[in-house]
Structures are given as C-alpha cells and as structure tokens.
Amino acid sequence: MANSWRRERWDSLRLLTPNWQTRLPGHHYGGPEPDGYMTMGEIVEFIFRFAQLSQAPVRTATAVTSVTRTDSGYRIETNAGDIQCRTVVIASGACNRPVVPALRHAMPASIAHITPFDYRNPGTLPDGGVLVVGASATGVQLAAEIVHSGRPVTLSVGEHVRLPRTYRGRDILWWMEKSGIWNQRYDEVDDLARARRLPSPQLVGTPDRATLDLNALMAMGVTLVGRLSTVRDGNALFSGGLRNQFSLADLKLARLLETFDDWARRHPMPDVSAPERFEPTRAPDPARLKLDLRNGEIGSVVWATGFRPDYSWLHVPVIDEKGYLRHDGGVVDSPGMYALGLPMLRRRKSTFIHGAEDDARDIVDHLAGYLARNV
Q1: Do 113 and 221 fall within a single domain?
Q2: Which of 17, 13, 14 is nearest to 173 (CA)?
Q3: pTM across the whole model
Q4: Cα dist from 311 to 61, 304, 319, 344, whole Å
Q5: What are the beta bridge partners of residue 302?
Q6: Model confidence over 274-316: pLDDT tens digits?
Q7: Claim to verify: residue 144 and residue 279 sit in the same structural domain
C-alpha cells in the first residue's frame, strides 16, 4: 500500500499541499500542525489509515499484468489470478516512469545519470558537481538539497511555473482554493492539452514555509543556465532564452496574484494582509551557454525532466500517439472504462490528494449510469 511513496521518493520529501488540505472522503488531517506539510512517512501512514477506515476490499501485493476487452467487459490478469469485470477505473497515476531525454546518450561515459526515482539524498551521488535538468517542483527541491550538502549545482531551466509559498499571510494553495482556480473545470479551459502538460509549480513544503524560487536558489549558490538543448563533443549546450523564460513566468505570476487580489476585494477578510508583489527573477549576466562535461566539473546529472504514465499492461486501443490515455474528463474512449488521478482530469486540482473526491464522485455517477443502461 502507498508503494510509490514508500519506494519511489527521496528521503526528505514533503507534500507540497498544507496538512489542512490533505483530505480524502471521510478522512482528513487531525494533527496539531494544520499549516505544516506531511513527511513521506506521514503520507504513507495517512493513506494506510484511510484504507483501514474505508474498509475497501484492497488487494495488496497484486500486480496487474494485462487488461483486455471482452464481450461482457474486461479481463484483468494479475499475478494473483484473473478478474472479470464490466467496468474498469484506471487510477495508476501519471508519474510511473521518469522522462530522460535521448541526448543523455551523447554525454561522456564518466557522467552518472540519476532520476528522481533513483535519488534518495546527496550522499548517494558520486563525487563532483551536479547538473540538475528541469526546474519544476522536483528540480528546484533537489537542487536546493544538493547545494546545501556542499556540492556545486548547476540548474538547467526551461518553462516553469513560479509561485511563492505564501501570499498576503496565507498559503498560496489557500488562495488557489478560495478563489476557485483549483475547481476550474477541464471543459472551461481554452487550451486543455497545454494545461495538462504544464510543469508542476516551484513549491516546497518546509516547516518555515519558505519560498523556493530561482532567486532563492541563486542566493544559495546554484548556477542557473538555460534549457539543455544538445550535447556536442562532450559539451552540454544551453539555450540563450533564459531571460525570456524568466519574464514569462514572472508575468504569469503577476496575473495570478491579480486574480487573488480581485477575489479578495469581493470577499473582504480581516485576517488577510495587504497585496504584495515579488522581485522579478534575476538573470545571470552573462548567462552560461556551455558546460564541459569532460573536465571533472560535473560528476552526475539529475534528470528532473518530468514523468510519464506507463500503460504497457493496457491492451485496449485507448492510447494516443504520444502515449497518453484518450479520455473526456476521465471517461475513457472504451465503453465502461474510466480514469482518475491524471493532470486536470476534470479540475485543476485533479492530481492533488484533496482533488480526488470531487472527480471520483463525477466518475462514479457516470459509471453507475453506464451500468444501469447496460444491464
């Protein structure tokens, strides 16, 4: 139970969502630190406790090896026997496999390659500096932890979502929830495909509720470079568009804060402080465009370049050419098949623990209707 949290996370990881927002149907955080962030062990315990309370017939240590369509529904093959069913809900998540670009094969053999699934703590890395590729939540957290250990860190930055940890005295995710942004539906978004591919926001859950943006990383000593574009003759070459990436992220942040301020004007609250704005992201001058990977400066590369789902077991023609599930708000393109837990499945909060309940309720309603129509 909670296998990915037990075996595929680094030691210091905490949830990005505050404890008060960590809730499942009939089960919520009840401890003394509602504004804190659960550790990995606490998350495992939270999920385990929910399983006990719900008394759901969960089969643990059971691996699904194949799902195929039958005349009456679906056949599920597992290592503990087969299951016949009329409907299937795929809740295996969107982060089953780390994405590692093919250009890793052009790097010198002396460079060690680590994914977030492999990484546990800085002590497990080989000697030398570290190049972290990717500046979403995972990339910035690992860069900060590694540089604090005394290792030189270079962070390759592409498109990213900048967020402060707190705004006007409240957690930024409080604002996302209260203003209604978390509940924005998938059919209300102009570019749904892009919204589902956005990187996770630059957030970290720490006891001091610190903001971990690129300015904070530079202050720690992290060297920022542009997007890794290619590797040639043992040199990593980076895009020169770093300032543009910074400006775009800063602009989107400013627009988001304006949305919060507009909501606050319409819903006055005495315990919310005055509007604030944040320093623009500082660009290194000059920006480094090349990094020699042969001179010993870099000993390892941490690929924080995102994740992909793994549907190798799903033998039903519902996967698109890019390897993603074809669905309309969780209703998969096969009768009686559904999905949960994918990015912006039905709402912006779909991939967060507290977002599961509303999505699940909608999916169950559709599923029940399907069964009633197909008796």
Answers
A1: yes
A2: 17
A3: 0.94
A4: 19, 21, 8, 19
A5: 114, 132
A6: 999 999 999 998 889 999 999 999 999 999 999 999 999 999 9
A7: yes
